[in-house]
Design a protein that fits this description.
The protein has 477 residues and is mainly α. It has 21 helices and no strands. α1 packs antiparallel against α6 and α5 packs across α14.
Length: 477
C-alpha cells in the first residue's frame, strides 16, 4: 500500500504554519468575515453593513472554492500566501479613511484573496503535520486565531474601530514575516494514496457528502449571526470578548480527549446544544445571563463541529495531490452555510417576523443534521480508518482485534465468521479477506451478512464499536 505522506512533519514547520494561519485567520474573523471591526466601522460612520457583510462572505466562499484550480504546488501556495497578505494589508488601509466607493471592492477583493490564502495553507497543513495528528494542528490554529480575534474585537469596540483595524493590519504584517520562513520546495510531488487494489482512492463522494453536511449544519451559524447576535447588541461589554470563549474551550476539550474516547457521541451532543441554544433564545429574556447560556451552547457546539470537519479535511489531504483543492472545497461549505443562514436570518429580521420563525427553522436544520450524521459517519469511516473514532481500534494489539469472547458465544458465531470478523476489524477489503481465507468474494459477503445479522449490527463501524466497547447497537454511530 502506497500512502501519500509528507516528507517533513517537522515540529518547527508545524508551529510556523500554525502561527501564519492564526495571524491571517484572526484578521479574517475580526474584520471581513462578520467581524466586529467591520460592524464597528459601519456603526461609527452610520452606514448599513449588510451588503458589505454578505459580499465579503460570498467572496470568501469563491476564494476557497476556486483556489485549488490555480494553486497546485507548494511553491505556488507560498506565492499565494505572500501576495494575498500584502494585498489584504493594502485593502485594509482603505478603511482607515472615511467611506468611499473603494470600500466595497476593497472588502470583497481582500476577502476573495484571504479565502484563497486559507485554501493554499492546506499544503503546509499537510506537510508540517504528520498523519493522525492534524486534529491538534487544526485545534491549535483555530484556538489561537480566535484568541487573537478577541483582542482585536475588544480594541475595536472599547477603544475605536481605527485601533481594531490597525491592530488587525499588524497581524497581517506579522503573518507575512513568518510566511517568508515557510518552505517552498514541493514536498508533495509524490504519488497519491492508493487502495490495496492499486487504484487511487477516490474522495469525491465522501467529500461531497461532507460538503452537504457542513452546509446544512452551518446554516444555524448564519442564523446566529443575524438573529441571536443583534438581539444582545446592548451587551457590547460582554459580547465583545465572551463570544468566542466557549468555542475556544470546546476546541481545547476536543483536542485533549484521550484517544479511546468515542467522539461520535460528542457530535450528537453538539447537535443537541445547537437546538437548545435556539430554544433558550426563544424563551429567555435578553439579559447577560441569557446571553451566557445561549452563546455557550451555540459556540460550544460550533467548536466541536468546526474541529470535526477541519480534522477530517486534514486527513483527506493525503488522498489528493492538490491540498489547496481539498481544503478549499471543504471549508467553502462552511462559508456557504453561513452565507445561506445569514441571508435567511436577515430576511426574517427585515420582514419583521417573530423569533419563533428562526427558532423553528433552526430546529428543522437540527433534525436534518441528525439524519445526515450517521450516513456521513458511515462514508467517512470507510475512507479514514485512522481518524479519531476509528484510530483507537487501529492502535490495539492484533491479539485484541476481535469480538469479545462472551459476545461471540452469545451470538453463536462460527469459527469462519470469527476469522472474517477479525479481518474486517483490520480494515481488510473483501478481496483481501478472500485471498487470505482462500474463498471467493461472494462467500466473504455471505459470511459478513450472517455476521452482521447475528450481532445485530449494520456496518463495519458498528463492528469496531462492538470490539472496542463490547456493546452492540442497531443504530449507526
Amino acid at each position: 500500500m502506497t500512502e501519500f505522506h509528507s516528507k517533513s512533519g517537522k515540529p518547527g514547520e508545524r508551529v510556523l504554519s500554525v502561527v501564519v494561519f492564526s495571524l491571517l485567520f484572526s484578521w479574517m474573523l475580526a474584520f471581513p468575515f462578520e467581524g466586529q471591526i467591520l460592524y464597528s466601522l459601519a456603526d461609527y460612520y452610520r452606514i448599513e453593513p449588510h451588503n458589505m457583510v454578505f459580499g465579503a462572505i460570498a467572496a470568501t466562499f469563491a476564494g476557497l472554492l476556486l483556489c485549488g484550480f490555480f494553486i497546485k504546488t507548494m511553491k505556488a501556495a507560498r506565492r499565494m500566501l505572500l501576495a494575498s497578505l500584502i494585498f489584504c494589508f493594502t485593502a485594509s488601509a482603505v478603511f482607515l479613511f472615511p467611506p468611499s466607493a473603494l470600500w466595497f471592492p476593497a472588502l470583497v477583493s481582500s476577502s476573495f484573496a484571504a479565502g484563497g490564502c486559507v485554501a493554499a495553507w492546506g499544503f503546509y497543513f499537510r506537510s508540517g503535520t504528520p498523519k493522525n495528528q492534524r486534529i491538534k494542528t487544526a485545534a491549535d490554529g483555530l484556538a489561537c486565531s480566535n484568541i487573537l480575534m478577541i483582542f482585536l474585537n475588544v480594541a475595536a469596540v472599547h477603544l475605536s474601530p481605527g485601533w481594531g483595524l490597525g491592530c488587525s493590519m499588524l497581524a497581517l504584517v506579522a503573518a507575512f514575516l513568518f510566511a517568508l520562513r515557510l518552505p517552498s520546495d514541493d514536498v508533495d510531488s509524490v504519488c497519491p494514496y492508493h487502495e490495496p487494489s492499486g487504484k487511487p482512492a477516490g474522495i469525491a463522494r465522501p467529500l461531497a457528502f461532507l460538503f452537504l453536511f457542513i452546509v446544512v449544519i452551518t446554516i444555524n451559524s448564519g442564523l446566529m449571526y443575524q438573529v441571536q447576535g443583534p438581539a444582545f447588541s446592548q451587551l457590547k461589554w460582554l459580547t465583545s470578548w465572551y463570544w468566542a470563549v466557549p468555542y475556544i474551550a470546546a476546541l481545547f476539550v476536543m483536542r485533549n480527549l484521550p484517544r479511546r474516547v468515542n467522539r461520535s457521541y460528542i457530535l450528537y451532543i453538539g447537535i443537541a446544544m445547537i437546538g437548545f441554544s435556539f430554544i433558550f433564545f426563544r424563551i429567555m429574556d435578553r439579559s447577560a445571563a441569557s446571553y451566557l447560556v445561549v452563546d455557550t451552547l451555540m459556540l460550544g457546539a460550533c467548536g466541536v463541529y468546526d474541529l470535526f470537519w477541519w480534522s477530517i479535511l486534514g486527513e483527506m489531504l493525503d488522498f489528493d495531490r492538490n491540498a489547496a483543492k481539498v481544503l478549499g472545497i471543504g471549508l467553502s461549505a462552511n462559508v456557504f452555510g453561513v452565507l445561506l443562514g445569514g441571508m435567511i436570518g436577515n430576511a426574517i429580521t427585515s420582514a419583521g417576523l417573530s423569533n419563533p420563525n428562526a427558532t423553528m427553522l433552526a430546529l428543522a436544520v437540527v433534525c436534518v443534521t441528525l439524519a445526515l450524521l450517521p450516513l456521513l459517519h458511515q462514508r467517512l469511516s470507510a475512507l479514514l480508518k485512522d481518524h479519531a473514532y476509528l484510530a483507537e481500534f487501529s492502535e490495539m494489539p492484533p491479539r485484541e482485534q476481535g469480538i469479545p469472547e462472551h459476545l461471540a458465544k452469545t451470538a453463536r458465531l462460527s469459527e469462519r465468521e470469527l476469522q472474517v470478523a477479525s479481518l474486517l476489524l483490520q480494515r481488510k477489503t473483501y478481496k483481501m479477506i478472500a485471498g487470505e481465507l482462500f474463498i471467493s468474494e461472494n462467500t466473504v459477503k455471505y459470511y459478513v451478512k450472517n455476521l452482521y445479522a447475528k450481532l445485530e449490527i449494520q456496518n463495519r463501524s458498528q463492528l469496531i464499536d462492538l470490539a472496542l466497547h463490547g456493546v452492540g447497537s442497531n443504530t449507526v454511530k
